[in-house]
From TrEMBL:
Residues 34-176, 199-337 form the SIS domain. Its EC number is 3.5.-.-. This is SIS domain-containing protein. It holds the Pfam family SIS. The keyword Repeat applies. Keywords: Hydrolase, Repeat. Transmembrane segments: none annotated. GO terms for molecular function: hydrolase activity. It is an enzyme of class 3 (hydrolase). It comes from Saccharopolyspora rosea. CDD domains: SIS_GlmS_GlmD_1, SIS_GlmS_GlmD_2. The keyword Repeat applies.
Length: 347
């Protein structure tokens, strides 16, 4: 049975993000209270547990922790706990468990186990009464509201912003770099609309697509590949710009579309040589971000400039819109992708 207005939920949830960001920023003091508890414990390093889109948000947080807090950070493999029963000593470790629903059994088990083994556990979710929140010592509510589309959009953007506000507060920051994100998000959605529609028409028949970015934008590249795969059934692979040059570039040719995340800053600067190499392979490059005009590309989607560490909050917006429009041009309802459910339970 076909829905009368395919993609309407996803479209509405993408459009809602400026207001979601404004609401979340208004609760910064509450997030700062959690940050103060973390700072008091002075963790020696951080671990992040997540799945799916939340795993990409965790990758973003990994960069924030390593750059802004100067702490080593790593992504947890939940199966080492759930399948293999590993019990490392986590004394003085910060364990951030990131999940939109807070309902995945493996993340709950990892959090419970980590807390028993000495970690300071913090749940970052969109569901304040979730099992994950109950398992963790502290929690941060991303306040995105109910999300009806299967593909995460507003919950992903809100999770990025919540993680930034949390980690920035741990270092004693005021959240100043994020203060104008609601306004910039509206500008991004408005000013990128035409270029996104053109990109959707450009790639509607694409069979292979590679997404890439460096630094903070590595998370956006990973999320872009997931969004395109789950909504358009497009074969999409994500690589950091550095990893792309370490082998996979050999598989790129004139039949490959490349979606490149390029925002102002060191990560965007590092993408110039990457995209020069990709251009020489004949690929069709779509550059998205505030530095899109500064790199080799066949098509560009503009994003307003902001501090590099919060750029992923903005640059993911046209990516989500592209996933929506590309799905519709390919005859797919992105609100109901085949074989997927809103909450995925894994162990």
């Amino acid at each position: 049975m076909h829905e009368p207005n395919p993609g309407r939920n996803m479209a509405a949830e993408i459009a809602a993000q400026p207001d979601v960001f404004a609401d979340l920023l208004a609760t910064r003091d509450t997030i700062a209270e959690v940050a103060a508890r973390i700072e008091q414990r002075r963790p020696r390093f951080a671990l992040l547990a997540a799945r799916g889109s939340s795993d990409h948000a965790a990758l973003y947080a990994k960069y924030l922790i390593e750059v802004l807090l100067q702490l080593p950070a790593g992504l947890v493999s939940p199966s080492t706990t759930t399948l293999y029963g590993a019990e490392p000593d986590l004394t003085d470790v910060l364990l951030l468990s990131v999940s939109q629903s807070g309902g995945s059994p493996d993340l709950v088990e990892v959090t419970e186990s980590g807390r028993r083994r000495g970690a300071l556990t913090v749940a970052v979710t969109n569901t304040a009464d979730s099992p994950l929140n109950s398992a963790a010592e502290l929690s941060v509510d991303v306040r995105a509201g109910q999300e009806r589309a299967v593909a995460a959009t507003k919950t992903y953007g809100a999770t990025l912003l919540a993680l930034y506000l949390l980690i920035d507060a741990v270092r004693g920051g005021s959240g100043a770099s994020a203060a104008n994100l609601p306004e910039l998000a509206r500008t991004t959605l408005d000013e990128s609309a035409r270029a996104v529609s053109e990109a959707a028409n450009r790639y509607r028949f694409a069979e292979r697509l590679v997404t890439t970015g460096r630094g903070y934008s590595s998370a956006s590249a990973a999320e872009a590949a997931l969004k395109l795969a789950e909504t358009s059934y497009l074969s999409a692979r994500a690589y950091s710009g550095a990893d792309l040059l370490h082998g996979p570039v050999a598989a790129i040719d004139a039949d490959t579309a490349v979606l490149a995340l390029c925002s102002d800053g060191r990560g965007g600067d590092a993408m110039r040589d990457v995209l020069e190499a990709v251009h020489q392979r004949g690929a069709d490059v779509c550059a998205i971000g505030s530095a899109a005009a500064q790199v080799r590309a066949s098509h560009r989607v503009p994003v307003p400039a902001c501090a590099e560490e919060v750029a992923p909050v903005l640059e993911i917006l046209p990516v989500q819109r592209l996933a929506l429009e590309l799905a519709l041009t390919r005859g797919v309802d992105p609100d109901n992708p085949r074989g997927l459910h809103k909450v995925t339970r894994t162990r």
